[in-house]
Hints:
The complex is a heterodimer.
Chain A: H1 3-32, H2 50-69, H3 80-95, H4 100-114, H5 120-141, H6 152-156
Chain B: H1 2-10, H2 14-32, H3 38-45, H4 54-79, H5 88-99, H6 103-136, H7 141-153, H8 163-177, E1 180-181, E2 188-189, H9 203-219, H10 240-262, H11 268-282, H12 294-318, H13 324-335, H14 344-347, H15 349-380, H16 385-402, H17 407-425, H18 431-453, H19 465-498
Antiparallel strand pairs in B: 1-2
Amino acid sequence: MPQGSGEKRHQFERWLIPGLIIAFCLGAYWLTTTFKTMPPILKRGIQPSDFPQLLLLLIIFLTLIMVWKDPIQIKERIQGSTWGTIFLFGIFASLTSIDLFLALGMFAAALAVFWGERRVSVVALIGIGVPLLIFFMFDLVFEIRFPRGLLTNLWYG
Amino acid sequence: MESLINGLISLSDPYLLLLLLCATIGGVIIGALPGLNATTGAALLLPFTLTMEPVPAIAVMTAIYCSATFAGAITAILINTPGTAASATTCLDGYPLAQRGEAGRALGMAVVSSTFGGIFSVICLMLAAPLLARAAYNFSPPEYFALTLFGLSMLASIGDGSALKNLIAGGFGILIAMIGVDNLTTVERFTFGSYELYEGIGFVPVMIGVFGISELLVQSQNLHIKREAIKMKSIELPTRADYKKTWQTILRSSGIGTFIGILPAEGATVASMIGYNEAKRWSKTPEEFGKGAIEGVAGSEAANNAATGGAMVPTLALGIPGSATAAVILAGLMVHGIRPGPTMFTEQADFAYAIFWSMMLVNILFFVIGLKGAKLFARVTLIKGQVLWPSVFVFSIVGAYALDQSMFDVWVALASGVIGFFMRRYGFSVVPLAIGLILGGMLEMRLGQSMIMLDEKWWLMFTRPLTLFFLVLTALALFGPSIWGRLVKRRAPIDSNGE
């Protein structure tokens, strides 16, 4: 990547992150103004909005100081492997509607392959063995009931 | 005294002993794996303890804490990659020793100094925690509020972020704790009408996300790194000459580590840095440091393991976590319905002492396991990321689900992981977020109670000596380093002119 482009991105993120934090805090502050107000006899010391408002103002104050005293510094750009992993998170999330363990198995196998594992036996162990082991350990030992789905129904009946 | 003996007797349970053995081995493996550390290990294994009784559950988590902290030295010495951040200083001399063919000697010293540091700190824990709890027994809400504020102010100096960024991250942690129904007034806050948010965001999924899943994303940046371990014939116990050279360092670092651990939010990483620096400062041969000084390994390892016992002092006696892992253990205590604090030593003293004794036993166990199995654990360090991290993900997701058997917690863990990754990328440590989340509710509750007690005159807090003391400490923790830095800067030109 050309030096100039990296520098531009750095400058952009240096302002973007504090901007996002402050925008988030302002949004949250507005939300706190919608909280119910308790009558004096029931308010138990402070109103429900008092503490969050104080905290949000403090975060905004600290963020403004951060921009001046300790700006955001980027050590390295995010690599394709990280974006790919986050994309796989999305695939995992969408597959959970079919079955949690199907999604876990497919995600684990896909991640192993994506990160460079080429041995079929290892991929199978990660994609099938590990989720199965964890499923039975939690189901039989810890008696945890998982959400019903395509595969878990085979066990739950 | 009776509780002390009852606690020891509880260790005679074969089930508990077996669990501690397994947890110690598991902790050593976790600590030896690059990327995984005591905090991640404790967060991932917390759901496994759900069905256990409180004593075995918390004993397992403390076993992971102690043994993983020690095991970070294995990777530090053999592959020059600290298994845990607390072992970063062990690399400085451990790896050069290994390169010289003295890996066994370095590991032997790491095992001995870690064990000594660990046992020393547990003895201090046994003595200090009940005393601290007794002192805090009569605290009123204003004192507790100021103490919790002091604990949070210590966040400024922890983790790998800067003070400002740590405080911002801690602030967001407290803000997350505000989500749900307000305990004092039963008013809904930030729930958006969602049923899942009524009871707030759980500690466990957030911790699994920020410590486990975010680390997975960090590791995805390091796929190109190839690790090679230095071969080791066998582990060697230190010689008499080594003991003669290091006994003072081990003793000093154990004291430093315990003290640093006791400070709220300061953990093994800071302890090992100070322990190492002090070892160098007091050494007769400081020029050898960084080139393979055995005192360097001893100073770092004794300090980081001593911090484990120290960190449990404020965690158990005051309910304020002494480190990131202690924060996870605190979450574990709350999940099991145990409220740490001064009352623990009057109402659940047997429980507290059972935990102390189990920590003592774990330190002895990892001494034996470390000596006998270091060669085997050295191989664990070479497990590839593409095998380890998909499995960690499966663990994380199932663990996040297991606590409340809720898919919402899975989404919380996943979102926390992604947010945690970006936080770390932009220089915000995730540790303050986790500690803020744990202490946030308590801080607000104590403030509310103080306001009721002081008839809504908050300024009366400054008229209470102990409250004022903690508030002054808070101010010192927040502004002390900056004021000190300015003073040093102002003096610097005078010094240079003088030269």
